[in-house]
Every structure is written in structure tokens, then in C-alpha cells.
Amino acid sequence: MKTSVSVNFAGIKLKNPVLTASGTFGYGYEIADLIDLKKLGGIITKTITLLPKDGNPPPRIVEADSGMINSIGLQNIGVCAFVEKPLEKLSKIGIPIIVSIAGACAEDYCGIIRILNGQRAISAVEMNLSCPNLQKQIICHNGKLTRQIIKSVKRISKFPIIAKLSPLITDISKLAISAQEAGADAVSIANTYPAMAIDIKTFKPKLAAVKGGLSGSCIKPITLAQVYEAHKKIKIPILGCGGISKAQDAVEFILAGASCISIGSAALISPKTLIEIAEGIEKILTDKKIKKITDIIGAVADGSEKQNKR
Ligand SMILES: Cc1cc2nc3c(=O)[nH]c(=O)nc-3n(C[C@H](O)[C@H](O)[C@H](O)COP(=O)(O)O)c2cc1C
Description:
Layout (H helix, E strand, L loop, with lengths): L6 E3 L2 E3 L3 E3 L22 E2 L16 E4 L2 E4 L8 H6 L1 H5 L6 E5 L4 H11 L7 E5 L14 H14 L4 E5 L6 H10 L4 E4 L3 E4 L1 E2 L4 E2 L5 E5 L4 H14 L4 E4 L5 H10 L3 E4 L1 H5 L3 H15 L11 H11 L1
Parallel strand pairs: 3-16, 4-7, 7-8, 8-9, 9-10, 10-15, 15-16
Antiparallel strand pairs: 1-2, 5-6, 6-14, 11-14, 12-13
Helix pairs in contact: 3-4, 4-5, 5-6, 6-7, 6-10, 7-9
């Protein structure tokens, strides 16, 4: 018998736990010609802001050992244009659409939510509170500000709220608790890690913005540990994101405490990886004779808790 891989995440029914990570597929519908998007659990769109943004000057993506560094800087067309075209197209795919949003303060986030609120194609909103290229030290590591912004958004949002957290904090569970207390329906762990690369021919930084966010396989073990830590302290579900490039990685995140996962860099290189991972998770769990994926969410974190209490 095949394992049931459907999950209920923040009130959204996902047919499997695999989502696209924000920012790595444009607005999300552009890869519809390359892969069958219907086979995914859902799409998380590129982050949109209240007003259009040009982002940082190029070059803004460089390769790193087992990963990449990007300094895109949230280039996007702004929420009004997003609702007009990309959202229209996304609504026709037939899988849950999670819209990623960002701003510099609560008013920015609330302004976007007021415009999105009437849109029935949206299943949830991911609040990007952690872009290393934009929000720097302002929101990322500040539990009080995180709480205040989420509370303001929750007051008016018609959608479930997923708070995407920065990994750049000694104990991410503190930030996750702040998000939970403010009413977030789920947390996304985590965004990229500030990083840089230098060209030894020119003696100059490879990115025009000097620093960017590190993603890809090299960050997987670090983010995995953060999901594990957060799962032990919070009750709301976790979306795990960081360096997942194969089904085995995804299963590790689920065992550490993620209810679902999103994939960025690996799918940017090869979009069909998304489908391979969705199918691979089902195969691994079926081979292990697991009835439902939900039976193993956080199994490793919960197991170690029990051992510690003995
Ligand atoms: C080119 C690029 C653009 C990104 N843009 C966004 C973005 O707009 N919003 C966001 O929340 N995260 C953005 N991210 C971060 C990813 O969503 C994800 O959190 C991160 O890349 C870690 O996952 P990965 O290792 O699977 O890529 C971007 C990442 C990359 C590589």
C-alpha cells in the first residue's frame, strides 16, 4: 500500500508536502511549460512588495561551493500589477497558491494584505520577514518587531499567515515562539544566510551589492537543525526550506519537524527536481511501510525529547 503523503498545513490541504520556494521561479506560473505543476503540493510566489522594486544592480547571482549566493533584492512588479496578471494565471493551475509578501514596516505589509484580501485564488500568505538583501537587521532578528508586524497583519488578513524567519539568530525557536504568540498560523524555516564571494582576478566582490544570501545544499544541515529546535518549542506547523535537493533531504526535514517543505536552488537548476522529490518522498515512506506521512512529522525531534525526559 502506498503511503498517504497529503498534509494539512495551516488550514490548507496539500496533496503532497512539496512546494516551490519563494523567488526561485519568478511568480510561479512561468515554469508551467517545463513541468506539470499539478503534481506539486503548492506554489509559493516570488515576494511582492506594495510598490514595484527594481532590486539590486547586477551581477546578483554567483555560484558558491554546493550552493549559490543571490542579491536580487526583491525585484518585483508590486502588488497591484501582481494581482492583475500573475495571480490571474496562477489561479488556473489548480493547486494552492501561497503569496509571499514583504515590507519595511507593519503598514507596508497591511497595505499589501488589503489589496490581496479580495482574491479568492490565494490559499495563504507567506510573510517574508527575513530577506537578507532588504530587511537587514531591522526585522530579521527582532522578536518584538516580528510579533508586532504579524499581529497587525493577522488583525486584517483573510488568509492564514506563514511567517518566514531568518536563520541568523542563535536560537530560532525564540523567534518562532514570537511568531506563534502573535497569531501566525505557521512558520517557514528559513531564509538564506548572509554571504559573499570575491573575484581573485579583479580583487573585487563578485556581487555588485557585495553581500547576498547563501542557499543550496551547503545550508541543509544548518537549517535542518533549526527546524528540529523550533519543532520542540512550538505547536504551529513548520515549512522547512534550505538546501533540499533530493527526496532523502525532504524526509530528513519531515522527521526533524517540518509538515511540508519548499525547494529553491535545486529546482532553479532543474525544475523537474520538484516532481522527483515529491515522488521520491512517497517511495521512501512506502518502502518503510509508513501509512501516513503525518505519522512521522517531527518523529526525531519528539523521540529525542522523550529520551531527554527519561
Ligand atoms: C535567486 C533567489 C531568489 C530568492 N528570492 C526570494 C524571495 O523573493 N523571497 C523569499 O522569501 N525568499 C527568496 N529566496 C530564498 C528562498 O526562498 C529559500 O528560502 C532559500 O533559497 C533556501 O532554500 P534553497 O536552499 O532550497 O534554495 C530566494 C533564493 C534565491 C536563490
